Amino acid sequence: MKLTSFEKIVMRSLGRKLMMKHVEAPKLFNGLSKGQFKRVLELGCGAGIGTIHILRSLEPAELVATDYDEDMLPHARRFVDHNWRRPGVTFQRVDATHLPFADNEFDAVIAFGVLHHIHEYRKAVGEIARVLKNGGAFLLEEVTREAHFWPISRLMVPAVLLEDKDVIEVLEANRFSVSWKGRYLRAFLLLDCRKLA
């Protein structure tokens, strides 16, 4: 699903940049090393803020940054071009429930707050599992039901209201081992999931 106008403003805001820099990226990438993942897929790159943190923290040889909302891709491309001078980043519009990639193509898939935007989030997780190599990492930060209180729920409309158990259940059903990286503000969980052979 596409973002609301308000969500698009939030995705490009200073507050979003600060949260990503000081909370989300450090927690999610803690314990991981640069160059550990050669080929990385980012789902829901939005304005490119998470994309930059993936590049700086993990330095993959190749990063495919994607979003369903074609309006966000030019913003992401400009932001990354301004903040990252090295090659290896491409941008593509994709539907997470029908990923246009081969089986076992990526070493890691990364998603910052994406699943709650996808009506068929279970199908999307199945696609993520399909394109990941065995032993590959699905690193995700997800927004849970607690974040969608009034009036926020009127401005930032989720496709689905997820609870921790919903996220864990769909990951385990798709052969992921799940490790908690932490949470913040009660409503956001961060997970490091590895695809089992």
Furnish the topology, listing elements before pairings:
Blueprint: H1 5-11, H2 14-29, E1 39-43, H3 49-58, E2 62-67, H4 72-83, E3 89-93, E4 106-112, H5 121-131, E5 132-143, H6 152-155, H7 164-173, E6 176-184, E7 188-195
Parallel strand pairs: 1-2, 1-4, 2-3, 4-5
Antiparallel strand pairs: 5-7, 6-7
Helix pairs in contact: 2-3
Description:
The protein is an alpha/beta fold and 197 residues long. It has a single domain, classed as Rossmann fold, CATH 3.40.50. Helices cover 36% and strands 26% of the residues. A 7-stranded mixed β-sheet has the order 3-2-1-4-5-7-6, with helices on both faces. The radius of gyration is 15 Å and the shape is globular. The model has no long low-confidence stretch (mean pLDDT 89).
Can you tag this structure with a few keywords?
alpha/beta, 197 residues, 7 helices, Rossmann fold, seven-stranded mixed beta sheet
The H/E string reads: HHEHEHEEHEHHEE
At the fourth level of CATH, the homologous superfamily is: Vaccinia Virus protein VP39
Low-confidence stretches: none
Stated plainly, the CATH topology is called Rossmann fold
Per DSSP, the total helix count is 7
Q: Regarding CATH, which class?
A: Alpha Beta
Rounded Rg: 15 Å
* Main sheet characteristics: 7 strands, mixed
Mean pLDDT: 89
Count of structural domains:
1
Q: What best-fitting shape do the alpha-carbon axes yield?
A: globular
Order of strands across the main sheet: 3-2-1-4-5-7-6
The CATH level-2 architecture is identified as 3-Layer(aba) Sandwich
Find the structural class using helix and strand composition.
alpha/beta
- Report strand %: 25-35%
- Alpha carbon gap, first and last residue: 31 Å
| DSSP, total strands | 7
Helical fraction equals 25-40%
